[in-house]
C-alpha cells in the first residue's frame, strides 16, 4: 500500500471574519462547499470525522446534511482537532473501510483572550490569582529566550506579522484584510515583552471541510486531486517547554513539532527541501519564527536573514502562511489546522487567486502546534 | 510563610520537579521530596503589561501595575516559574536571583536584595 492512495478531492472553507453565524452553520456551509468542489453528494460519504473546541458536536450536522446513516465520529482534541479528524479520515481510506471520507473542523469563540481555569490544568489557584495563567506570557517567554539564544530581533517578529497582514489582504476569506507595516506593528501596545498587540492572532470563527477519496473514486471524479502523502499527530516528550507549566526541565527544549514534522516527511518520503509552500502555526510572530527551524526549513537563527530578504513572502524561495495564517485569519481552534491544509490544496491546484505562489508549486507542508504540547503535520503533493 | 521551595527529585534519573510530585515526570519512578535551592539564574522572562482577566486574577488593592514573570533555573536542574520583583528595565537573561516561597506563587528578586 502506498501513501499516495489518499487524495483530497474537495475542499470547502467559510469566511473567517466575525459574523452572526453559529459554528454549526459555518460547518454545514463548509461541508456543502467541499462536496460541491469534489462533485459528490453527501450520500457518497462513507465515514465522517470532525469537531470543534467550543462550538458543538460535529455529528449533529447530519440533521442538516442528511440522515444517511454514515458513521460520524466527534473529535475534540484542542488545537489538534482538525489534524486528528484528518488522520482518522486518512486511516478510513487507507484501511479500505471507506472510499470517500469527510474531515471537518469548525469553531466560534467569544472575543478576547482564552480563559483557562487553574483547576482544569492541575495548578494551584495561586497561579490564576497572581496573574501567571495567561497564555500570551508563555509565548512571549518562549520567543524571548529563543531570540537571546539565536540572535533574532524584534524587527524580525514585526516582519512576520507584516507578511501575514499583506497575505491576508490578498485572501478573500481572511478576517484581517488591511495591510500593516513593521513600524506600526512594533509601535502597537506591548502585550508581553517582546510581543506587541499586532503580533498576535485573536480567537475567531470559521469552518473548513475536506473530502478525501481513494484512487479509484478520484480517477472517476477527474478534476485535480491533491495527494495527502502524510498526516500525523504527536504529543510532547519529556523535555519540552509548554504553556502553564509551574516548572520546566533544563537544557534546550524538545519540540513536539520537530517530532511530528520528521514523521510526516518520513511517511511522505520527502524532506523539507522538497517543499514549495508551507503553512506554520503562527499564534504570534515568534511561533512562526521558531516553527520554521523546528520543522526543518532552516537552521536556528537563519530566520533573521530569511525574513529580511523576503524569502518567506509569496514570491520568495519558501512562501510561508500564504493566506495570512492565524495572524490574519484568527484562531478558531477546531478549524485552524484544516484551514492550513485547505490553503495548500488551493496552492497546489493553482487556484489561490491573487495570493497564488508562482511557478506551479508541487509540494506543500502544514504544521499546527497547540497546548499542551501537541503538533499535527501534513505533506501534500500535486 | 517565606522559605525554600518544596520540590521533588527522582532517585533514578535525578530529574527534579516543582511543585513536588509523587512520581518522576520522565521515567515514572518514585520521586522524593527535596528542598530546592534558593538561588538561581533567570532563564527567560516577560512583562504582563495589561491586567489579566478577573477572576481568576486578583487585582492588588493599590490597583494594577505591570509586573514581570520568568523562569528561574535552579542548581537542581529545574526551571521554576516565578513572579519577578524586579523593575522590567533591569531584567536580563542570566541574572542571579533569589527565589522564595511566599504563600502564593514563587517570587524572585535580584540576589543581594532583601525583599
Ligand atoms: Zn526518573
Task: Present the secondary structure layout.
The complex is a heterodimer of chains A (382) and B (115).
Chain A: E1 7-13, H1 23-38, E2 47-51, H2 62-65, E3 72-74, H3 81-94, E4 100-108, H4 125-129, H5 135-150, H6 154-168, H7 182-187, E5 190-192, E6 195-196, E7 205-213, H8 215-221, E8 226-235, E9 247-248, H9 256-268, E10 277-280, H10 285-294, H11 303-308, H12 325-329, H13 333-349, E11 363-370, E12 374-381
Parallel strand pairs in A: 2-3, 2-4, 10-11
Antiparallel strand pairs in A: 1-7, 1-8, 4-7, 5-6, 8-12, 11-12
Chain B: E1 6-10, E2 16-17, E3 31-35, E4 39-48, E5 67-74, E6 78-84, E7 96-100, E8 107-110
Parallel strand pairs in B: 6-8
Antiparallel strand pairs in B: 1-2, 1-3, 4-5, 4-7, 5-6, 7-8
Bound molecules: zinc ion (ZN).
**Proportion of strand residues of chain A:** 15-25%
> How many domains in all of chain A?
1
The largest pleated sheet of chain A is described as: 9 strands, mixed
Count of DSSP E strands of chain A? 12
Total of helices of chain A? 13
Helix content of chain B: under 10%
The largest interface is: A-B, 37 and 38 residues
What structural class should be given to the helix and strand makeup of chain A?
alpha/beta
**Measured distance between first and last alpha carbons of chain A:** 19 Å
